[in-house]
Specification:
This protein is mainly α and 136 residues long. It has one domain (20-135): Globin-like (Orthogonal Bundle). The chain has 7 helices and no strands. Bound molecules: protoporphyrin IX containing FE. Protoporphyrin IX containing FE (HEM) is lined by residues 31, 34-35, 38-39, 52-53, 56, 69-71, 74-75, 78, 81, 85-86, 89, 113, 116-117, 120.
Amino acid sequence: MIMETDRITSEADIARLVDAFYARVRRDPALGPIFHATIGETDAQWALHLAKLRRFWSAVMLRSGAYHGDPYSAHLRLPGLTPEMFDRWLNLFGATCDELFAPATAEAFRDRAHRIARSLRMGIFERLPAVRQAAE
Ligand code: HEM
């Protein structure tokens, strides 16, 4: 199936977006600390995360199959994660897309990010209490 998103971006776009977005995340007072607590603060520690996130967006936007991880489990175990952090994340992500890309490309990235964020947020914060307890 050919989707609109197959044509309007590239690996080079994805690399630029991931680098610019996470540079902002690291400086952001609301999001920086939770990322630093898990990933670390050095460029060497971040290099692995950035490489993984390039593969993730390549799989999402270009259907490259480059990513095989489990984002849900990765976020489930983050201490101090709140639903409001997802709004902040999406705002920063959207602003970065708008700065880097033409409107249709920015919109395609934003749309995917919103869908994935919604499903992560629902999975993490709206689970039944018994399920949440069993996972903790
Ligand atoms: C409140 C917002 C968010 C915060 C604070 C956050 C934070 C983090 C952190 C700290 C990690 C590293 C986890 C680890 O290495 O153990 C991570 C991994 C990841 N995040 Fe997020 N994240 C957020 C939202 C999102 C959203 C909306 C997406 C996708 C659209 C996303 C995609 C990913 C992916 C793909 C990974 C890699 C998972 C793996 O290890 O395979 N994150 N995130």
